[in-house]
Design a protein that fits this description.
The complex is a heterodimer of chains A (about 110) and B (about 120).
Chain A lengths: L3 E4 L2 E4 L5 E7 L7 E6 L6 E5 L3 E2 L7 E6 L2 E6 L9 E6 L7 E2 L3 E5 L1
Parallel strand pairs in A: 2-11
Antiparallel strand pairs in A: 1-3, 3-8, 4-5, 4-9, 5-6, 7-8, 9-10, 9-11
Chain B lengths: L2 E4 L3 E3 L5 E8 L8 E6 L6 E7 L4 E4 L7 E6 L4 E6 L8 E7 L11 E5 L2
Parallel strand pairs in B: 2-10
Antiparallel strand pairs in B: 1-3, 3-8, 4-5, 4-9, 5-6, 7-8, 9-10
The chains are: A mainly beta (about 110), B mainly beta (about 120).
Chain lengths: ~110, ~120
Amino acid sequence: AIQLTQSPSSLSASVGDRVTITCRASQGISSALAWYQQKPGKAPKLLIYDASSLEGGVPSRFSGSGSGTDFTLTISSLQPEDFATYYCQQFSSFPQRTFGQGTKVEIK
Amino acid sequence: QVQLVQSGAEMKKPGSSVKVSCRASGGTFSSYALTWVRQAPGQGLEWMGGIIPIFGTSNYAQKFQDRVTITTDESTSTAYMELSSLTSEDTAVYYCAGGGFWFDPWGQGTLVTVSS
């Protein structure tokens, strides 16, 4: 089964900071990766699919990049509403799907 | 735009089963893949399995293969996830979500608590 490892597990940042989260796959998955944002007590929200395609309605400060085994989610200028936990998810291996363990973005 | 509404919270005894529903509105249900994901308290997201109603075929994570059944009722645009042989480790919020590749939209989640 394909494993996804996110780093860091948590980070502290200030409003306006540029934030980068990494997701590494245990084997190549082409661009079959999505990113989600989850706030406490809420369902996850899709941000990015196909590694770099921005879901409609998601602010342009969010971007995704990468292919193969290494992927990145970048928030160009962190806003107060961006403090949340972020998950990557692969959809390369049919029918199995897996999530990364999550990265919690906290206020510094 | 499809919206997914799940059934309410459940309290179950160890060894029993739970069946959570997910009703879709605003879209073409039969051609829309549906996925179930769970999240234990304070933990990450865990994919359980999915179904494409028009094909009636379900796929499950190996971890749950022997205990989970995902079905649909096209007449009511509702998907179901039934998990058997519950233990305290199955205490979690269970989400349905649209899509088989990436997942969107999501239901509001259903808390299942397993306790004696």
